[in-house]
Design brief:
Elements (H helix, E strand, L loop, with lengths): L1 H28 L20 H15 L3 H13 L32 H14 L6 H15 L19 H7 L7 H9 L5 H8 L6 E3 H10 L5 H10 L9 E3 L11 H7 L6 H4 L8 H9 L1 H16 L20
Antiparallel strand pairs: 1-2
Helix pairs in contact: 1-14, 2-4, 2-5, 3-5, 8-14, 9-10, 11-13, 13-14
Length: 330
């Protein structure tokens, strides 16, 4: 009796896993709703070596320093959330422009610019003035996720680069770690992203780290934190000083793209207040439970949400430019 029940459960589990896998494959192979001028084959004839160049540089960078994977992925998030996916986050300040790098959510925390610079240099050598920095960042973020053990997806290409950046817009649009679930939903909805997208994209915090200045209020003041977890984090992050000290967002597997982030949320071991808001008696609780138990579902929804996020207000056609250096306009 118990043997038959266990075989039945195992078979059901296998069918469920196979179904999720097939759905993920369909997502990656099927045409995606997107900006009409974006296409995965945009550079097929003008720069056919582009995918291989990007992958080789990202792979080399992650072998040297695995934390750069999360850094590159974060660059893409922070680019798309400020005036769309236009490469503006990569621009250095100039005497005439205060860019996004020194915004509250970026200063002293954005990294990985050298990876994008290295890719751009090799791409320019292969196909000059052809591929945008915005598209390089989109490809690099996908490859970083895949190399860290996460899903892959078809990256839609054809974006052009912004001529300028905005410190004020970055300060307004980037979600702070103090955000409530209600505020997060409003911010993401304003970008055309649903609660499911929000919850799946937040799973990017299964890799990466946060500064003491970002998580101090959560581990000292919030009641929804496991006491032993909070006590250890307080030891690393005192009430005064040590703002630059960093801890991994996912202490279990900080350089592995998996579902540990969601399991940490359920155990109330989240490093950031805004993350714990996803599992705090609100509308996202069910999705967190779902992803924590079903990695294939998380991968499928994350891939779909990354494609949607990559479609936020791209510059196409004659808009913007193709920068020859990602840190400055031509």
């Amino acid at each position: 009796m118990h043997y038959l029940e266990s075989v039945g459960m195992a078979s059901f589990s296998n069918v469920r896993w196979l179904t999720a896998t097939l759905l993920l494959l369909l997502l990656l192979l099927a045409p995606c709703a997107t900006h009409p001028q974006l296409s995965p084959s945009f550079y097929a004839t003008t720069c056919p070596k582009l995918p291989a160049i990007v992958l080789s540089v990202v792979e080399k960078a992650l072998k040297r320093n695995p934390t750069l994977g999360a850094a590159v992925l974060r660059l893409f998030f922070h680019d798309c959330f400020v005036n769309g996916c236009d490469g503006s986050v990569l621009l250095d300040d100039t005497p005439a422009m205060a860019g996004e790098k020194n915004a509250v959510g970026n200063a002293n925390s954005l990294r990985g610019f050298e990876v994008i610079d290295a890719i751009k240099s090799k791409v320019e050598a292969a196909c000059r003035s052809t591929v945008s920095c915005a598209d390089i960042l989109a490809l690099a973020s996908r490859d970083a996720v895949t190399l860290l053990g996460g899903p892959s997806w078809r990256v839609l290409l054809g974006r052009r680069d912004a001529l300028t950046a905005s410190l004020a817009d970055a300060n307004t649009n980037l979600p702070p770690p103090s955000d409530s679930l209600s505020s997060l939903r409003t911010r993401f909805a304003g970008k055309g992203l649903s609660l499911r997208d929000l919850t799946a994209l937040s799973g990017a915090h299964t890799v990466g780290s946060a500064r003491c200045a970002s998580f101090r209020p959560h581990v000292y003041n919030d009641p929804d934190v496991d006491p032993r977890y909070a006590a250890f984090r307080r030891h690393i992050c005192p009430r005064v000083g040590g703002d630059a000290r960093r801890l991994p967002l996912d202490a279990t597997s900080p350089n592995r793209f998996d579902v540990s982030y969601y399991r940490d949320l359920m155990a109330r071991r989240s490093l950031l207040h805004s993350d714990q808001e996803l599992f705090n008696g609100g509308a996202a609780d069910g999705l967190v439970r779902h992803y924590s138990a079903n990695g294939q579902a998380f991968y499928m929804d994350f891939a779909a949400a990354m494609v949607k996020m990559g479609n936020i207000s791209p510059l196409t056609g004659a808009a913007g430019e193709i920068r020859t250096h990602c840190r400055r306009a031509n």
